[in-house]
Structure formats: C-alpha cells, structure tokens
Specification:
By secondary structure, the protein is α+β, with helices and mostly antiparallel strands. It has helices at residues 59-70, 82-102, 111-122, 124-130, 136-143, 148-156, 196-199, 204-220, 226-242, 247-250, 262-268, 274-280, 296-306, 309-324, 330-345, 353-377, 380-403, 409-420, 445-462, 509-526, 547-565, 581-602, 615-626, 633-642, 648-656, 660-665; strands at residues 2-3, 79-81, 169-174, 177-185, 258-261, 288-291, 423-427, 483-485, 490-494, 629-631. Helices cover 50% and strands 6% of the residues. It binds zinc ion. Residues 2-4, 11, 522, 526, 583, 586 line the site of zinc ion.
Length: 685
C-alpha cells in the first residue's frame, strides 16, 4: 500500500472536486464570484509567498517563503504545515466524538467500546499505580525460556502479544493470486528506524543513545546487568542490520516474491524451527509462505544460532518494555518519549495526553470512530464531487497514454486496459469493520493494546483460506491521506483529505486541480510507477510490458532517480532517489494530470487571470500550497533513510522543473537555479 504522505510514517494524497467535466471550483468560470474560501481570497494564501524570490530559483520559497519565515513548529511537533493542520482538525473532531462517547451521547453500536478505549488511555492515575505490572506476565514468560527452541516459540506469538520476532510473519494478498490471501515472512528485530542507524557513522550518536535507552528500560523492569545486556542487544541488532535488505531493495516486488514450503524454510534456516514457530502463530497447517527478503533468512538463522540465549532474552524483554512503554506509568512514557521522539526526531515536548489518546483509539477501533465522524463531518455531496473529479483525472491520463511517444502499441493497449480497471474508493467504506470480537476495558489500557493486536491477527488467520475482501479499507475515514493498493488496483481517498487546501468548493478551480487534482493523479500514477507497473488491471504481479518499452521506462526512471539523489536537504544527507522513486513518479504524474484536467475543464475558453496570476500559475501554486511545511532536522534525517516520500521541499522543486508548462508559466530561463534543459527533463506519463 502506497500512501500520499508520511505522518508517523504514513503518506498523503491529493483530493479534488467538481462535477464531471466541469470546473473544480464553484459554478461558472468567473473566479470573482467565489464565495469565501478557507485560504486567501481564491483558495491560496498569497500572504505566505515570498515574491522577492525568483520562481525559477526556488519555487517552494516563492510560493511559501513568508509563511515559512513566520511559522514556528509547535514544541510538541516535529513537523508543521498544511497536512498537519488538517491532521489536528481530525484529532479535534475525534476528541469531540470521544468525549461525547464517554458522556453517553453517541448513538452507535460500538459507542461503549470507543468510550472504553479512550477512557483507558486517559486514566493516567491508574497507569502510574500499575507501573510495570501490565507487562509482568510477558516478562516472566521470557525469563522462563531455557532453550533457543523456546525462544522461537515465544517469537511465534508476536502477532498477538507484546513480543517481537526476528522473522515476522503476516497475512496479505498474494501478489500473484490477488483474490487469495497468503502468509508472508520478512526480516525484523530492529529497534532503530532503519538499518542505517546501526551501520552509518552519521548515526553514531543516535546508536549510542539507543544503547543507553535499552539499558534504561532493562533497568526499569529489573532485568539483570542492564548495561552489559544493552551492549549485547545492540550488537545483536547490528548483526541483523548488516544482513537486512535496504529499504530501496525491499521495494522490489519481483525480488520480494519467493514462495517456499515449510520444509524449504527449515532447510534455509537451521536452528529456527518453523513448525514450532508457526504452531505458536496459530498457523499450524500452513504449507507455503511467500518469503520477501529471502537471502537474509539463512544469515539471520546463523546470527540467531551464534547469539547467547541470555542476549536473546534481554533483547526480547527490552522490546516488550519498549512496545508497552507509551501505555505504562509516567517513567516509562517519559523514557520512551525521551528516546523515540526527542532524541530520534527532535521533538521538544510531548503531545498532550488527550491527543495521544485520540491516536490510540484511532489505531484500536478507528473504523467505528470513522462511522461517527462521517455522519457528523462528511457531506454526501462531497462523495459525488470526488467521483467526478477522479473520472476527470482518469480521462486525461487516458489521453496521455494514447499520445505517449516512447510507448509501443502493445504496451499501450495493456496500460489502457489497466487504467480502465481501477477501483476508486472515496470517503468511507461501504462495509464497516465488525469489532464484536474485540473486548475493550476502560481499566486495562495495556490489555486493550494486546487484545486489539490479537483481534486483528485472529481476523486475518480466520479468513486466510477465504477470498480477499475487496471492500476493506487500509485507512480510517478521518485520516488525512490517500493510497494506492497494488493487489486491488485501487485508489482510496478518505473523507478527511477532501478539505481545504486540498479541496475547497469555494476556491478557484485551478487551486483545486493543483491540490486534490494532483493528489488523485499521484495515487493513480502509482499504478504506473516503477513498482505499480509490474501488476495488471486485476492487481496481479505479471509483466505486461514489451522489453523495449520496459527499458525506455527504466531509463527515464533512472534519470529521475539521479536528479533526486543529487538533492541534499541537510549537510551530508541526501535524498535517496531509489527509495523515493515510486513517490517521485507519483508526484510527477500527479501534477501533470492535475494541470491537464484543469485545461480540459476550461473547454477551450481562456483561463481567467486572478490577482495577476494566470490559470497555470495558480495550478502550480495550488500544488506548492499543499506541501507548505517545516520539519525539524532530526526528523528530516530520520525520514531521509526511512520514508519513501521526498521532503516536501522537493515534492515541489523536484517536480515542477520537469514540467514544461512550469517554464512557460513563470518565464523560467537558463541560468535560473531550478532550470533543467528540455532534453534532460524527465517525462514518463
Ligand atoms: Zn504516494
């Protein structure tokens, strides 16, 4: 699943509006008849521009510079911008819903569960009183381990407990049989955000602090020799990191599809007993597993065999405490915040407890909150407008594919076939999640966390042999984001992204085409990015490209990757053009399609000029406004190695310089800093 934007590590999408083949803004093309949009007088906050900057030198600052100068990132945030403002709005609305649920004012079948989840998180006094007690049972189970086989069994319970595994299994759609689920296995076991934190000298400080944090938590739960064990745990994880595929490698959908029998797995990982492991995972009958990063498996087994049992026990105990810390007493909450938020992301202060409680309920029983959210905050007209807008974007993409000069007839026909088979989901699911089997108690926060995990896992296990549920959503309606899902060939736009500055019915249409139009285009383009192009209209991983067209695509993608890899947001820290490839292609397609759809909406009439800005200029400004954002350096460094999205700055400046219309819209000339010669501009879709 590919997101539009990374929140905690999530992504964002675009939204749009407009009746089909009509403008995206109000009725009629006279922009002066607009009602009052949320941003500025025509949907764009022009007061945030810095017009002393030449657009061709730095378009992000031209569009957003004054806003950036006057904006401080709030002390409880690592990043702030237009996405975050909408995320706060969603949180505030959920907060109102949860307070009402606790007060018994919500009429919904799950209202009491929602209230219990919220109340359990808000009961800070109880959490303080219990201290480490909620994890005593799991820690005792780790203490009782006397053999590696027993440790393997403990790791087998990872999906329905607080334990973790070095080789986690999960259930997902089979990429080569997209109507079926399958068990998949990957590598895991790391407590830092990415393998680079263990291996790159630039992260040495964070790694040293991690060791202190491991020792701190082990000490807090009374584990013996915390400092010594922490050193051994970090050494163990460093070995795993060395044999972990890079995130860029893990994006490869062909190389990560490796079906194996259980016998083959047992042969590949001596000392790691898959039968015992799967029995504890409640998957005793599974015969076949799709292994992702297969070459790591024998190496992980070797490290597991070579590591002393006491180290593995300390490692498991630390991860139980680390996973539970946000739900325990203040000293655990503070320790977790101090390392994970402050040290790793540069966040000065904790978010208020109620905001953390809202996020917890959203993770735990989010669709039921969403059902209430949608009834309160999502007008039915919005769904119809989005339907039309998505259709508009599909129409202009169809026209683009028909005209692509680098693509041959065979590939073109199949690309059009795929485009015609997209599924579009807007607002909220047609069928809501059934939480009847989930028990939530207002006086058992950590128990709620574990029961929610177990509920999800049992649900996956129970339907393993059934058909894939194509109605399911991977995001709640109150999420400010969007996504493309390969195996369903679907684009999904939750209700909460269909708001200004993405989509504002009272804004100038050009702003909406640059905003939600670009987001829709971004998500649809994922179906044709470097990984999305590997599956067909039915979501099956299958090569439908001629060799010649595939190599032309790859050459263009390589050029784009080289452009992005040259970007250096912080001294010595570059964008990873391979990790961000799919998202960059999505952004390129998104903006181009938003612009095309705007042109189509004019139906041959000239675009109005508003406050001196032409229609095309306003589309580009609309796109730039969506990515108006500031981020702390520490958080930026973390994202550069772990987030498949480029920094917001380059989601503007990296994209526009490849779009011919941007040059003519802003008279960008050779010598301007963002200028790319026509022959070097990347054109894919
Ligand atoms: Zn994306």
């Amino acid at each position: 699943m590919l997101f539009l934007y990374a929140t905690a590590l999530v992504t964002v999408a675009l939204s749009a509006h407009g009746t089909h083949a009509q403008t995206l803004g109000g009725e009629g093309s006279d922009a002066r008849t607009l009602a009052s949009p949320k941003y500025g007088t025509w949907g764009f906050d022009a007061s945030g521009m810095d017009q002393s900057v030449k657009p061709g030198d730095d378009f992000f600052r031209y569009a957003n510079g004054k806003w950036a100068e006057r904006t401080e990132i709030p002390s409880d945030r690592v990043r702030y911008g237009n996405f975050d403002k909408l995320i706060e709005l969603s949180e505030n609305r959920m907060h109102a819903i949860l307070e009402d649920a606790v007060a018994g004012k919500i009429n919904d079948p799950d209202a009491s569960k929602v209230a219990a989840a919220y109340a359990s998180f808000m009961d800070e006094a109880l959490a303080d009183q219990l201290d480490a007690k909620p994890i005593e049972r799991e820690l005792a189970e780790v203490r009782a381990v006397t053999t590696k086989d027993q440790m393997t069994a403990v790791m087998g319970k990872a999906n329905s407990s607080g334990f973790i595994s070095i080789l986690p299994v999960y259930i997902a759609t089979d990429a080569k049989a997209p109507t079926r689920y399958t068990v998949q296995a990957a590598t895991g076991g790391l407590g830092l955000p990415d393998r680079d934190y263990y291996l790159q000298p630039s992260f040495a400080t964070q790694k040293a602090k991690y060791e202190e944090y491991v020792a701190q938590l082990l000490g807090m739960v009374g584990w013996e020799k915390p400092a010594e064990n922490a050193r051994a745990v970090v050494d163990f994880e460093t070995s795993l990191a060395q044999d972990t595929w890079t995130r860029a490698e893990r994006r490869d959908r062909d190389k990560t599809y490796n079906p194996m029998t259980i016998a083959e797995l047992n042969t590949a990982t001596p000392g790691f007993d898959w039968n015992r492991y799967l029995a504890q995972s409640e998957l005793p009958k599974v015969q076949r597993i799709v292994v992702t990063t297969n070459t790591s498996f024998p190496k992980f087994a070797g490290i597991y065999a070579a590591t002393p049992l006491d180290t593995l026990k300390a490692w498991q105990a630390f991860h139980v405490a680390d996973g539970a810390a946000p739900y325990l007493s203040k000293r655990f909450v503070d320790a977790s915040f101090g390392f994970r938020n402050k040290t790793l992301a540069g966040q000065p202060e904790q978010r208020p407890r109620w905001r953390r409680a809202v996020a917890f309920v959203d993770r735990t029983i989010g669709e039921s909150v969403g059902r209430i959210y949608v009834a309160r905050y999502f007008p039915p007209e919005a769904k119809a407008k989005m339907d039309a807008l998505v259709a508009d974007i599909q129409t202009v993409l169809k026209a683009r594919i028909q005209k692509l000069d680098w693509m041959g007839a065979d590939t073109r026909a199949r690309a059009l076939e795929k485009l015609a088979k997209f599924t579009v989901k807007i607002g909220y699911p047609s069928k809501w999640r059934d939480y009847r089997l989930l028990t939530l108690s207002k006086s058992d926060l950590y128990g709620n966390v574990i029961r929610a995990a177990a509920y999800e896992w049992h649900r996956d296990v129970a339907r393993l042999d059934g058909p894939v549920d194509k109605t399911e959503w991977g995001m709640t309606p109150q999420t400010v984001n969007a996504y493309y899902q390969f195996t369903n060939n679907e684009v999904v736009f939750p209700a909460a992204i269909l708001q200004p500055p993405f989509f504002d019915p009272d804004a100038d249409p050009a702003i909406n085409y640059g905003g939600i139009g670009g987001v829709i285009g971004h998500e649809i383009s994922h179906g044709f990015d470097d990984q999305g192009r590997k599956s067909d209209g039915d979501g099956m991983l299958r090569d439908w490209w001629t060799a010649g067209d595939a190599s032309k695509f790859t050459a263009q993608a390589g050029k784009l990757g080289a452009q992005y890899s040259a970007f250096e947001p912080l001294p010595g820290a570059h964008v990873n053009g391979n990790l961000t490839m799919g998202e960059n292609i999505g952004d390129m397609g998104g903006l181009s399609l938003g612009l095309d759809a705007y042109h189509a909406s004019l139906r041959g009439s000239p675009a109005p000029v508003i406050d001196g800005f032409t229609g095309d200029q306003r589309v580009f400004l609309g796109w730039a406004q969506v990515w108006r954002e500031k981020i702390r350096d520490e958080a930026q460094r973390q994202r550069l190695v772990s987030d498949p999205h480029s920094p917001a700055f380059y989601r503007v400046n990296g994209v526009i310089r490849n779009v011919d219309a941007w040059y003519s819209a802003f008279q960008v000339q050779p010598g301007d800093k963002l200028y790319v010669a026509p022959a070097d501009r990347v054109r894919i879709w």
